[in-house]
Amino acid sequence: MSKCAGCGAVIEWEVTASGRSTPVNADGTPHWATCPFAERFRRRNRSGSRPTRVESCSWCQDLNPMSEKFCGTCGHEAHTPRMFCRCPKCRPGFIQVERV
Ligand SMILES: [Zn+2]
Ligand SMILES: [Zn+2]
Ligand SMILES: [Zn+2]
């Protein structure tokens, strides 16, 4: 038996079928359904996910995080207009390997 850190109600921990422990009231109802602080708990549980800025690649339109210079799908510079792309694929020095 323990106490809810939010409202101070007496709760018990029950393990669900999915293996998660969930707080329940003395009468067996899930505590998050009756606790006035339930919303706060849920937000705290999600603290690990920070919103990442993503933008579509100018070459293939796939979404890439702004921190990535090159597109993970097509290999071109994801956040550079196509005509200014200087990735290994577009740089002249790499293309002129073939000699006629
Ligand atoms: Zn509570
Ligand atoms: Zn791309
Ligand atoms: Zn390129």
Overall description:
It is a single chain. The protein is α+β, with helices and mostly antiparallel strands. It has two domains: 2-45, no CATH class; 51-100, no CATH class. Helix content is 16%, strand content 18%. The protein contains three helices and five strands. It has a three-stranded antiparallel β-sheet with strand order 1-2-3, with no helix packed on it. Strands 4-5 form a two-stranded antiparallel sheet. It is rod-shaped and about 75 Å long. The relative contact order is 0.10. The structure holds zinc ion (3 copies). Residues 4, 6-7, 9, 31, 35, 37 line the site of one zinc ion.
Shape: rod-shaped
What string, H for helix and E for strand, traces the elements in order?
EEEHHEEH
Computed CA radius of gyration, to the nearest angstrom: 26 Å
Mean pLDDT: 83
Poorly predicted parts: none
Q: What assembly state would you assign to the polypeptide chains in this entry?
A: single chain
Strand order of the largest sheet: 1-2-3
Distance between the termini: 82 Å
Task: Please describe the topology of this protein.
Layout: E1 2-3, E2 10-15, E3 21-24, H1 31-34, H2 38-45, E4 54-56, E5 63-65, H3 92-95
The chain binds zinc ion (3 copies).
One zinc ion binds next to loops.
Keywords for this structure?
2 domains; binds zinc ion; 100 residues; 3 helices; single chain; two-stranded antiparallel sheet
Quick overview of this protein structure:
It contains 3 helices and 5 strands, in the order E-E-E-H-H-E-E-H.
